[in-house]
């Protein structure tokens, strides 16, 4: 399964307003649950994992987060995306500091998913400044997906 096969407009949000990471993770959880992609246990599992293994990343121009969980909380592999109007704080995965994130890729990877390949694809997007700029300025879920696939 490729990243492109895991993107759905109904699980992609733009112009998200959130005060903290729990809010944006909840919004993505609701979309994933409404669309039959995850189990109800997903939200709590993401927050628990985030406490132990934070997912904030700092790239040259962008700060992003990739919260995710193990496959037992997933029904169908999906990457839910939130593009925020204002950054929110996530703890970095590589040290004890924080990043201010504008884009969240919430990975719901089932047993059929190839985690290393999906993460590599996502990292390639994050390291492409032009693509990230276009994602941050996208006006619709369809536009976000088109940018990623393009």
UniProtKB/TrEMBL annotation:
Keywords: Sugar transport, Transport
CDD domains: PTS_IIA_fru
One Pfam family cited in the UniProt record for this chain: PTS_EIIA_2
Ranges for domain PTS EIIA type-2: 5-150
UniProt signal peptide: none
Ion transport in keyword set: no
Official protein name in the record: PTS sugar transporter subunit IIA
Source organism: Anaerostipes hominis (ex Liu et al. 2021)
């Amino acid at each position: 399964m490729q990243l492109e096969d895991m993107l759905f407009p109904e699980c992609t949000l733009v112009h998200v307003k959130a005060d903290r990471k729990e809010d944006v993770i909840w919004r993505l959880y609701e979309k994933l649950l409404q669309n039959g992609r995850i189990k109800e246990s997903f939200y709590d599992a993401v927050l628990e994992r985030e406490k132990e293994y934070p997912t904030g990343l700092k790239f040259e121009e962008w700060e992003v987060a990739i919260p995710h969980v193990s496959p037992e909380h997933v029904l169908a592999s999906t990457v839910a995306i939130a593009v925020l109007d204002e950054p929110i704080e996530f703890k970095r995965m590589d040290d004890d500091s924080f990043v201010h994130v504008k884009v969240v890729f919430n990975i719901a990877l089932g047993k059929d998913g190839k985690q290393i390949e999906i993460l590599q694809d996502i990292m390639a997007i994050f390291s492409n400044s032009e693509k990230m700029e276009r994602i941050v300025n996208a006006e619709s879920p369809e536009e976000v997906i088109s940018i990623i696939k393009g």
